[in-house]
Design brief:
CATH superfamily of chain B: Cytochrome-c3 Hydrogenase, chain B
Number of helices of chain A: 5
Radius of gyration of chain A: 25 Å
Strand order of the largest sheet of chain B: 1-2-3
Shape of chain B: globular
Number of strands of chain A: 7
Structural class of chain A: alpha/beta
Distance between the termini of chain A: 48 Å
Chains: A alpha/beta (238), B alpha+beta (394), C mainly alpha (343)
Oligomer: heterotrimer
CATH topology of chain B: Cytochrome-c3 Hydrogenase, chain B
Helix content of chain B: 40-55%
Distance between the termini of chain B: 27 Å
Shape of chain A: globular
Strand content of chain B: 5-15%
CATH architecture of chain B: Orthogonal Bundle
Order of helices and strands of chain B: HEEEHHHHHEEHHHHHHEEEHHHH
């Protein structure tokens, strides 16, 4: 049972190798989702700015003023009755912790400092993205829309999907997007007097600001094995 | 800050004042007519630190407002500062009752982005452990829903029978509650000697436990009187709120990501039935989870019979750097649909991870669901929706 | 037996001391045997095993000592006098019920000739104590619990009474000693081997009495006032220390009292059938033991149901009482009357 007896024989023996090297595209959409994207494009026309496919899941970027209409189309014409989530993305790269002098801070993975956008591109720093699915047609669609940096105004999905209520409250408190048409935009996770929008990239991870990463710390010495040993180790590594 | 906010539909007070009302200390003086009662955050029925501010008219709920965030740990911010292997430790703790199942979609997303496929044996073992964690969560649910409704004894049976499954998970992974067993590319170590036989024996106990719960609670008239027609979720509204998992299947929606979503783990090889119930009330949710527990035990037995031999870890580089891209993986977790949207920019850690947790959406339907019910029914509904605070608050 | 010539004052003193000692003792015994041990075994665990050495028999005594030495906390906004008085009223009503329960031929505090009527009347005094506790606690959960309790206890007085009326019709007397004598000396169609325990003809009444007393004691399936997973301890939630001890003694003492009344009314009480020819002198020693055994049997039923069933919601509870149990009680009385006259 726990014996690893080696791998199976390679399956090249079963089928003849096809003439051209066919590596299936991992991002290819299956027929169902291809139909979904086509119908969505037909319904919305030029509101669709860009589309992409992420490992078989379509991602469509729509104009920001058509955000609610996109939801209505998805719910009505495309039978997407299930709301998965609504959230936001901040494409600005996070400023290095502690500025440029913090050279040896190995705590956080180093992200590239150039601004790149993901699937279906983006207009600027902020995007709102959401996913809806259909329980009957078994297809799903991810929608993205750009959010203007200054006004941060997004149309609310609450009239279309009542469940967007909590998702939009969370997105507001985490990013600052103001959802127009939301019944009561108030804090969900954070205390009501909280200032700031934590998931933005320029909001620091406060625990690292309060106590800087101590660097590589050696194993805790055995009790009584000498505080001198601990002190020298700490000096050497800091 | 806000632009055109229409007047609130249910509350006839200023929304800014309501923000403070939800945080204010509840005083002793009774309103004439309506009484505001604070259920939680420390309360035996709210499964953790959920606070429900209900406005009561006698024993009827006029309005209910859940206040969450007492356990908010900021996972979506934290994971931007962690490498992928470090994140596995963190996300174990989202839904702590079925923690193995939380790791799977994230690891799957990372593996998709890297173009690595875990070997079949690893996929099978992952599936077995996911189904075991489903059994462990549901057996606890079957017991403690009885407790919330007033029967003291089934809760103990639930804990006792769950021990068998927890022992198995501990034997395989080293941790009862937080296994932290998945690695990108496969699993940490292979199964111990004798584990398969022990699991087969334990599944027999699970079948017996399900029969006990069926006799004790499902057939009991008082249990039926307390749960039938209580908290009915209409299927379209449930889907629009994002209610998923057994809750939605109990409203008659035949949708299970193990069968209907993008194929993941070893589920395409399995032959299993998806249970639904037409009623959508609390009894239906109990019944569906009872049947799913049995189904999960059958799936475990199928998986053990068909377990392939082979390596349990694919070839991965020592430092895991995930290439640039986006990936979305959703799975059928015990609590519902869980998904991770991973945006990577080629570093050793992700750029943005959106964690879609099931209980967040399940609980968001509470303000609609609790209008007009009695206070004891509030407890029944909370018990039947079965949420975990870590899953709501992330 | 020598007849001791002691004045009424000494008798009164002895009886008072006996009652004051016995009631907490009964609460203790019931609590230990059923709440701690039987419930644990039914839930596949052991219950207390260490205190006192043998299966933890000292647990409740230790609990009692612990409660007494606790700090007396009164909520700041509570109505202090009412808050202090409420547990006392509940416990006093328990003590008063024990006054008419016979444990032997002469072992009764006072054999009132309206014994059963008095017992039921006095046991319903505890409703006032419960209401006082819930209101004075200045806590909305307590208030909810107390209001539920008041409605429930009043509703279930009636089935209790109607069940007992059937017994009174058959026995012809309300005095508890008289009912015991009736059962012990009675005969069934001429066969007097087991006397005439009234459960044989009053089985509907017995079931009714058990259900109603379960509700009077606010035990599951009727424990909405003390719904542990909702209101935690309902009307008792603000009580700590020895005040909580009073409530505890009140709850389990009343459970013993109701079980004893059920045993007396339906199972023959302290008496064994007269045809067995045991002298009254022996019965003075045997009576309490016989009664104790019968009480344990009835209490077993009560607590078994308590640990198994979920609880009914308040409106379902009321519907059960008014629309189901009271009509059954009335039918029971009708049938009893008819058979009493006809046969």
């Amino acid at each position: 049972m726990s014996d690893v007896s080696g791998t199976e024989a390679p399956e090249a023996d079963v089928e003849a190798e096809p003439t051209e090297d066919v590596t299936p595209d991992p991002h290819a959409l299956d027929d169902r989702h291809t139909e979904l994207v086509e119908r969505f494009g037909t319904e919305l026309g030029d509101a669709v700015l860009d589309q992409a496919s992420v490992f078989g899941m379509p991602v469509v970027r729509v104009r920001r003023i058509e955000w609610r209409r996109a939801a209505e189309v998805a719910k009505g014409a495309l039978d997407c009755d299930y709301l998965c989530f609504v959230s936001g993305i901040d494409w600005m790269p996070a400023p290095k912790e502690g500025g440029d002098e913090a050279g040896s801070d190995t705590s956080a993975p180093v992200q590239p400092q150039e601004v790149t956008y993901g699937a279906a591109g983006s207009d600027g720093r902020f995007q709102v993205f959401a996913r809806v699915q259909s329980t009957s047609r078994l297809w799903g669609l991810t929608l993205k829309a750009d959010v203007d940096d200054e006004s941060l105004l997004v149309q609310s999905w609450v009239p279309v999907y009542p469940g967007a209520d909590w998702h939009e409250r969370e997105t507001w408190e985490m990013y600052g997007f103001v959802f127009d048409g939301h019944p009561a935009l108030r804090h969900l996770y954070l205390p009501s007097e909280f200032e700031g929008h934590p998931l933005r990239k320029d909001y620091p991870l406060l625990s690292r600001v309060v106590k800087p990463w101590p660097g590589l710390v050696d194993v805790e010495p055995m009790p009584g094995e000498g505080d001198d040993a601990a002190e020298t180790t700490a000096e050497a590594s800091s | 800050m806000s632009t055109t906010n229409p007047p609130l539909p249910e509350f006839d007070i200023d929304p800014r004042a309501f923000r403070h009302l939800a945080d204010a200390q509840v005083g002793v003086e009774l309103d004439t007519g309506d009484m505001i009662l604070n259920l939680g955050p420390q309360h035996p029925a709210t499964h953790g630190t959920l606070r429900l501010v209900v406005r009561l008219d006698g024993e009827r709920v006029v309005s209910a407002d859940p206040v969450i965030g007492y356990m908010h740990r900021g996972y979506e911010k934290l994971v931007e500062f962690r490498t992928y292997p470090q994140i596995t430790t963190l996300i174990n703790r989202i839904d702590w009752l079925s923690s193995f199942a939380n790791e799977v979609p994230f690891i799957d997303a990372a593996e998709q982005l890297m173009g690595i496929e875990a070997p079949p044996r690893a996929q099978y073992i992952r599936t077995v452990l996911t189904e075991l964690s489903r059994i462990s969560t549901f057996v606890l649910f079957l017991g403690e829903m009885g407790l919330q409704v007033g029967a003291l004894t089934p809760a103990f049976y639930g804990f006792r029978d769950r021990e068998h499954v927890l022992n198995l998970i501990e034997a395989a992974t080293g941790g009862r509650f937080h296994p932290n067993f998945n690695r990108i590319g496969g699993l940490k170590v292979d199964l111990p000697w004798g584990w398969v036989n022990d699991t087969r024996t334990a599944m027999k106990t699970i079948f017996d436990a399900c029969d006990t719960f069926e006799d004790l609670l499902v057939g009991n008239e008082i249990f039926e009187a307390r749960t039938r027609s209580i908290g009915i979720i209409p299927p379209e509204l449930g889907a629009a709120y994002g209610v998923s998992g057994s809750n939605l299947r109990a409203s008659g929606v035949d949708w299970d990501l193990r069968r209907d979503g993008k194929p993941y783990l070893a589920y395409p090889d399995l032959d299993f039935k998806v249970w639904t119930h037409p009623d959508g009330d609390s009894f239906a949710r109990y019944w569906v989870r009872l049947q799913e527990t049995r189904e999960a035990a059958r799936m475990v037995l199928q998986l053990l019979d068909g377990m392939p031999a082979g390596p349990i870890m694919a070839k991965v580089p020592r430092i895991i750097k995930v290439p640039e891209g986006e990936a979305w993986v959703e799975t059928e977790n015990p609590l519902g649909q869980m998904g991770y949207y991973v945006i990577s920019k080629g570093a050793t850690g992700p750029f943005r991870v959106k964690i879609r947790s099931a209980s967040f959406s399940n609980v968001s339907i509470l303000p609609w669901l609790l209008r007009g019910v009695f206070v004891p029914d509030v407890i029944t509904i909370l018990a039947s929706l079965y949420f975990i605070l870590g899953d709501i608050d992330r | 037996m020598i007849a001791l010539d002691i004045g009424w004052g000494t008798t009164l003193a002895i009886k008072t001391v006996m009652i004051l000692a016995i009631v907490p003792l009964t609460a203790l015994v019931l609590g230990y045997v059923f709440l701690l041990k039987m419930m644990s075994h039914m839930q596949s665990r052991l219950g207390p095993m260490d205190p006192g050495g043998f299966h933890g028999w000292f647990q409740l005594v230790g609990d009692g000592i612990k409660f007494i030495q606790k700090e007396d906390i009164t909520p700041g906004q509570a109505d202090k006098r009412v808050f202090a008085l409420a547990p006392a009223i509940v416990v006093i009503s328990t003590f008063l019920v024990f006054l008419v329960i016979p444990a032997g031929p002469d072992i009764i505090v006072k054999d009132l000739n309206v014994g059963v009527f008095y017992a039921l009347a006095v046991s319903s005094l505890s409703v006032i104590g419960v209401l006082m506790a819930g209101w004075a606690s200045a806590n909305k959960f307590s208030l909810l619990g107390a209001l539920r309790a008041a409605a429930q206890l009043i509703a279930y007085e009636l089935p209790l009474l109607l069940a007992v009326v059937g017994v009174v019709i058959q026995a012809g007397t309300m005095s508890l000693q008289g009912i015991v004598a009736f059962q012990s000396t009675g005969s069934i169609f001429g066969f007097d081997g087991i006397g005439f325990p009234l459960i044989l003809t009053q089985f509907i009444g017995f079931a009714l009495f058990l259900v109603a007393s379960q509700a009077e004691l606010t035990q599951t399936p009727f424990d909405m006032p003390v719904a542990e997973s909702e209101l935690v301890a309902g009307y008792m939630v603000e009580y700590t220390g020895f005040r909580f001890l009073f409530f505890f003694i009140g709850e389990f003492g009343t459970a013993f009292a109701f079980a004893a009344i059920a045993a007396t009314l339906y199972l023959g009480g302290w008496a064994l059938p007269a045809s067995w020819g045991i002298s009254m002198g022996v019965m003075r020693f045997l009576g309490p033991l016989v009664l104790f055994a019968k009480v344990m049997g009835v209490a077993f039923l009560m607590f078994w149901v308590r640990f198994t069933y979920p609880r009914l919601r308040e409106d379902q509870l009321q519907a059960l009482a008014w629309k189901f149990l009271i009509p059954i009680g009335l039918v029971n009385i009708l049938l009893t009357g008819v058979f009493k006259v006809a046969i």
